[in-house]
Please model this.
Amino acid sequence: MTKKICLITGVGPGTGTALVRRFAAEYEVAMLARSNERLAQLAQELPSAHAYPCDVTNTPQLMHVVEQIRQDLGAPAVVVHNAVRGAFGSFLEIEPEVLEENFRINTMSLLHLARATAPAMIKAGEGALVITGNTSAYRGMAYFAGFAPTKAAQRVLGEAMARELGPKGVHVAYVAIDAVIDLEWTRKRYADKPDDFFCQPADIAEECFRLAHQPRSAWTYASVIRPFGENWTLNA
Amino acid sequence: MTKKICLITGVGPGTGTALVRRFAAEYEVAMLARSNERLAQLAQELPSAHAYPCDVTNTPQLMHVVEQIRQDLGAPAVVVHNAVRGAFGSFLEIEPEVLEENFRINTMSLLHLARATAPAMIKAGEGALVITGNTSAYRGMAYFAGFAPTKAAQRVLGEAMARELGPKGVHVAYVAIDAVIDLEWTRKRYADKPDDFFCQPADIAEECFRLAHQPRSAWTYASVIRPFGENWTLNA
Amino acid sequence: MTKKICLITGVGPGTGTALVRRFAAEYEVAMLARSNERLAQLAQELPSAHAYPCDVTNTPQLMHVVEQIRQDLGAPAVVVHNAVRGAFGSFLEIEPEVLEENFRINTMSLLHLARATAPAMIKAGEGALVITGNTSAYRGMAYFAGFAPTKAAQRVLGEAMARELGPKGVHVAYVAIDAVIDLEWTRKRYADKPDDFFCQPADIAEECFRLAHQPRSAWTYASVIRPFGENWTLNA
Amino acid sequence: MTKKICLITGVGPGTGTALVRRFAAEYEVAMLARSNERLAQLAQELPSAHAYPCDVTNTPQLMHVVEQIRQDLGAPAVVVHNAVRGAFGSFLEIEPEVLEENFRINTMSLLHLARATAPAMIKAGEGALVITGNTSAYRGMAYFAGFAPTKAAQRVLGEAMARELGPKGVHVAYVAIDAVIDLEWTRKRYADKPDDFFCQPADIAEECFRLAHQPRSAWTYASVIRPFGENWTLNA
Model:
């Protein structure tokens, strides 16, 4: 039997790689990231993972890559938008363009990606689009002016698409991580924190995989996850 | 190997029975409901399901039953609070006592149940308490004055317990069903609706089962589920 | 011209007294509280303020007092439900009855009060019911299991009544104070905090007064207020 | 005594003009809009209203106009960001650029405006920035993919700025209108609706004026307003 296709953006060392490993167990996975190095390594390690280096903010390039994936592997049944770029700082001091660039990668590329991949899912009468986010999708903390608006926009864009695609059998879901993800650099920054403090990339990937396969009578749009030991600040 | 124990309240014909079937596959299940008839039938059908007829608003009776379960089967590792009573009508016309009674079954019995079962979970350093709810947990629609406040109270009580129990390894989760559940009486009332309109009890039960087994680095408190084809009114 | 009537529950030393002062400037005010001492003082000081000692959880007494006010002053055009009782502590250690009692004062007495006073407002085609609350109306923090559920229930009860009464010209509004109110005992507990840390009772009273008089084309249900200098934790 | 300065963007025929009228009663008002025609009329009618034709998405032009206002009138004590552009349609059919353009006018111009005007407010230790929005700031309805994300981003940007500016004495507030505003074109589109269906621009303007003058111990960030007779869909 032919495996279904899964497209994943933002294949970095943490959640992105974990997503690839999880989905590669059951899908042919098309991996997108700007740099090819990690993609090439993963492709070598995992026979079902295929490298498609791409800057998702370069729309013609993104459209070209999606078309290439369709020809090479087939139309994606699942798309995971994990590409993200953040920023931190006073709204008075950040470069305003930072907000616009983050909007381009976090929100606009989601719209382009959905436009390129949803029609085949609609035709098939099934499919899933999963988006990874965080608490900035719900609130604007001080010094997050350059980032939080783009995650809120992303969540609400996903919601608008979910309401439109749902009745056509295509599921859109948003995973908000209310925690620090366990990564090399976060371990350094939070060196005093115990293991329990961190959210595991493999668990995030599992949650994305689960949402992509929910039964049709019980779909979730927004899923918020956090470690059991952690301080819990979001009302959700 | 000895099976773990699961306690389920509100074992009615829909979600309650589906919960029993789902958990009985892996747990010894203690079933609570006011009438013994359904419990006896399920107990006969499922060797792992055990009948404990009980009115959860009768606190001494509830305490007695929880103690009996502990002696018969052992301390519950999972508790699912599915018992519920509703009401509909203008706040000017309902009997005010209805609100108080619904609070007793929907909210107070959850508190009593949690007090009786959480200490053993804390001692074990693990366990789960799952609560089933609906959109009334989030908003007060007109003519829901006798019901919605008790579900909102229930959700917020669960949240307070989740924040207290989480760091002790005990997971509390709230499943809100934003849909009409597929039951004999709902099929009659919504006779013109297609199958897709209804949320399946088996899918609700699966979601409760899943939440009771989430990995510790990625717990969810509030999970909202709805059928794919359905009108979607809640902002969550 | 005859002044309109305003009924205020929970006339304690802080917000309650400030509410009386604010509304007494333009209304005949019926003051409710369990103890008569403060009411008598206020009644002596303010000619428009009238003492109606009453335990709002004693429903027959509450009904009697509302009827007495109607005979003495007339039917209230504005009702402010400020009576509240709280609790703090682990859900495992509080007396469970505390939650039920808080529900009675915070939620049930609101229902009884609204049932007794809304019909005259509906008949008049205008009127307002304002409820004072706090962040527990939105979330369940750890150790607030005995209190937060009752404020969430209160907010959602008010919302259900707002949706039912709105089209009849009667406005229901909920003021959530996301701060510590400036009171004798809070000043002692937070002795190290500057003036800016506290929310002023007079400002809360002004907000309630304003909401009671909003133009009909632009009503607010939920209003969250907090001091400018304060740490801001609620997503609202 | 010299009047304080108020800057208003998006001076269209509805809310924008109402804002100008309301603030001109107590402020010198700098009016911004792309077309000069309405501004010139208002400037002639209202001696305190001054025309500054400007495309707020043209950042150098916006910066120039803010500087011009500062020289002509003084630094604004109040800024009202009412400029908005919307879109409607399936995410599959809209031009993707529409979302980016709406982000530029609804969100980016707010950031630029705040960066240009907040420093003087911080120096003064007081000031207000009021943003007008709607229910799209909270949720993504189907067919609102080209618009809702930009309002959600705007609300969250305002929130991030509110948390940063609040402790410096500068108030940021967001007014979400959960209704159809009473305008020439909306009256035509909803010709069958009664007067009560519509939210009055003058009432919206009054709400913005009020928020700009709240006492410091009781600030509101998000204010949702709706007509009394109206169907009420937002959970807020």
